[in-house]
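Researcher: Structure for this, please.
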Amino acid sequence: MKKEAFLNELRSRLSGLPQSDIDDRISFYGEMIDGRMEDGMSEEDAVAGMESVDSIVSQIMSEIPLTRLVQTRVKPEKGHKTWKIVLLICLFPIWFPLLVAFGAVLFSLLVAIWSVIISFYVVAGSLVIAALGCTVATGAYFSFGMMIQGVGGIGAVFVCIGLSILFFLLSIAMSKGTVILTWKIFVGFKTMFVGKEA
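Model: Predicted structure, C-alpha cell format:
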C-alpha cells in the first residue's frame, strides 16, 4: 500500500473526529512513514511496517476524551431544521428510556461479571485458610500417633493449595479479560458515536 492510500484510509476512518485532531494524526503518521523512507525503506515497506488502520483508529479513539467527541458531534448546524428539534423533543419519551435501559443493562452485566470474579478470589482465599487448617489438623494427627489420618491430612493440604492456586490464576485471568473487554466496549462506543460524517 502506498503512503497516500494509507493516509486517505486513516483520514476516512477518523472523519467523525474534530478536524484539528484528524490533521494532527495524519501529519504524525505521514512523518513517521517519511522517517522510515529516509532510513532507506521503500514506500510500500514503510507503510507495511505500520500498525493496521484498525489498531491505529482504536488507539486514537481511546486517547480522545468522550466529552470532546460529544462537543464536536452536537455542535449546532447552520440553519438547524425546526422539524429536527420538534422530532427530537417529541420522541424523547421513547429514546431516553431506551438509552437509560441500555446503560442499566450494560452496568448490570459488568456488576454480575465482577461479582463472579470476586467470588473466585474469595474461594481461593478460603482454600488457603482450609490448607492452613488442614496443616494444623495434620500436625495434631501425627502428634497423637494417628498416621493414616495424618497422611490424609497431608493430601488434603496439597489439594487445598493446588485448588487455591488454580482459582487464583483463574481470577487473575478473568480480571484481565474483563478489564480488556470493558475497555474495548468503551472504545467501541466512542467509535460508534463518532461514526462517519454525512
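Researcher: Any notable elements?
Model: The chain has two domains: 3-75, 114-194. The helical segments are 3-13, 19-38, 43-48, 53-63, 66-73, 82-90, 92-143, 147-194.
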